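Ligand-bound model needed. inosinic acid.
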Amino acid sequence: MNTRIQPCVTAVVGTKWGDEGKARIATYEAQNARLDMRTQGGNNAGHTIVVDGDKIGLHLIPGGIINEETTAIIGNGVAGNPKVLTEEIDVMSKYVNITSEKLIISDRSFVIMPYHIDLDGICEDERGKAKIATTNRGIGPTYSDAALRIGVRYQDLFRSRESLEGILGIAMRHHEDKLAKYGKGYSVKELYDYLMEAKENLYKWIGDPDELIAQTLYGGKKIVIEGAQADRLDLLNGDYPNCTSSQCNPSGVLSATGIGPLWVKEIVGVMKGYDSRVGNGPFPTEIFNDEVAKLIREAGHEYGTTTGRPRRVGWLDLVAVNYLRGYSALAVNHIDTIGKIGEQLGYIKVCYAYLYQGEIVHNFPSNIEVTGEVPKPLYRTFEGGWTITEKTNSYEDLPEKAKIYIGYIEEITKVPVRDIGIGPGTNDTIKRF
Ligand code: IMP
Ligand code: MG
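Prediction:
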């Protein structure tokens, strides 16, 4: 036993296909955190934070930057578009003095290059009918270049011109034929200029965060990790190929920082009272009845933050909350929304198991792409719904039916529900422990 390790990391991760409302839980957790970190994904993610009554859409900078004592870190595993980073720093500078102590962009993190965005679109086109429906932000090609070791990292902006052009030349030789086939192409000079502009805008914040992370860990101070995307979009454990290209599971969000697992204190899995998915891929509880789907989509404002796409919506799927991940607690958002839906429709359905290949299963099957069979959900139906009134301040104040619903989530997932979202505001969260 290493007694000098006192677990102090809280990871907030999505349990489904993203857009579960991680940001509000992470922002809440970050209130007393020394560090608030994004560790994987890039500006395919999106969340809204409210500062001084203004709504701000962020894709890369963790929301905890608004807290006085918190340093925001863009970690090693992030694929960051320098233009988006520059814009977000500009916007946030109206509210916070973003010194180099306030924000660190890890010098090991990867730069999204203009050709990565082209290649994202080209790859989608070449897939024909088998499109993933990516966010088209260049995320996949940035990670595949990283794996090929022809990526550009933020530290490369500080190389000599000759050295940086060498790196860009390798990348271009790899991609130029494909790009040319689609009428695209970049000179090394053009790419160098793109990076020098990024350097001019961002140099102050690029650095090695390890010393600060180590001091924080050994000082026993709180670190919040804001997972991006979500469990079923995980490259290795999710719905391949209809997934993202980073690892969004609890261990993945950690390894993308370099922080070892013994430092973790809690892993909060975030979900909603119903489900949604944007992009293609299996969604067992998807609602195809237009009227019911529309009801949920409107009540829950289910349109993409990054792309504005209407999200596919479905009943709450408790099988998709994978028990292997070992969440210490769940946060369930939109308990107000699902109650309202129940009142309007007279019922709510919750999936507790699937019928797949003629058998009842309790985990998400691995080979849906091969069998072509989407698991058939087995539902428990709850009669009616509920209304959350303004007087609801604690778990005890919740309508009885809402408590039964939450109890059922705990019974099937075997994870305690800690946070309950009952409205759109940051303060509309009931904390049970
Ligand atoms: P990519 O991450 O842009 O390559 O997209 C791959 C898949 O992940 C697509 O189905 C996207 O819709 C989905 N995706 C990526 N980021 C998010 C997110 O933040 N929320 C929800 N879905 C996402
Ligand atoms: Mg989101």
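DSSP finds twelve helices and 19 strands in the chain.
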